[in-house]
């Protein structure tokens, strides 16, 4: 397969699989840590109106979803990429970081979570995914 095509497929696969991991974790989060009484987690307006009811425990799964989705997507992109593996891993991190920033504007969260999420869930996880993929590719 031509390296350019392989690199394009790496980015597409990283975004799709990372998004699936993210969404999967968000989907199961409510059954593990139920939202506050009366909150409909599938409705953005309900979430906005009741964000003040959320405790720290309610932010565990959103952080895990963002971090593990990015890690998985970056790992896969680096694994598939024909060249510049770490650059593709970090590009996946930047993609998800942009999504995280957009999410903060759509659904305001506590400042501590915003800082933790933006600083820890995207670029560091993408870098780690790239490192892991680099180790797998060498062995």
Topology:
Layout: H1 3-32, H2 44-50, H3 60-80, H4 85-106, H5 111-120, H6 123-138
Keywords:
mainly alpha, 76% helix
Explain how this protein is built.
With 139 residues, this protein is mostly helical. It has one domain. 76% of the residues lie in helices and 0% in strands. It has six helices and no strands. The chain has helices at 3-32, 44-50, 60-80, 85-106, 111-120, 123-138. Helix 3 (60-80) packs antiparallel against helix 4. 29% of the residues are buried.
Task: Briefly say what this structure is.
By secondary structure, this protein is mostly helical. The chain has helices at residues 3-32, 44-50, 60-80, 85-106, 111-120, 123-138. It is 76% helix and 0% strand.
Oligomer: single chain
Query: How many structural domains can be distinguished in the coordinates?
Result: 1
Radius of gyration: 16 Å
Shape category:
elongated
Which regions are unreliable across 5 or more consecutive residues at pLDDT < 50? Answer: none
| Distance N to C terminus | 22 Å
Indicate the mean pLDDT: 94
Task: Bin the strand percentage.
Answer: under 5%
SSE sequence, one letter per element: HHHHHH
Major pleated sheet: none
Annotation, overall tally of beta strands: 0
């Amino acid at each position: 397969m031509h390296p350019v095509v392989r690199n394009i497929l790496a980015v597409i696969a990283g975004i799709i699989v990372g998004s699936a991991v993210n969404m999967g974790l968000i989907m199961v989060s409510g059954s593990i840590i139920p939202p506050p009484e009366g909150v409909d987690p599938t409705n953005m307006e309900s979430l906005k109106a009741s964000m003040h009811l959320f405790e720290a425990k309610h932010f565990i799964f959103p952080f895990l979803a963002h971090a593990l989705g990015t890690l998985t997507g970056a790992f896969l992109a680096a694994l598939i990429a024909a060249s510049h593996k770490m650059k593709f891993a970090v590009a996946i991190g930047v993609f998800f970081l942009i999504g995280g920033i957009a999410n903060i504007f759509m659904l305001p969260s506590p400042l501590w979570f915003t800082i933790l999420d933006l600083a820890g869930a995207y670029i560091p996880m993408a870098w780690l995914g790239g490192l892991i993929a680099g180790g797998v590719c060498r062995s």
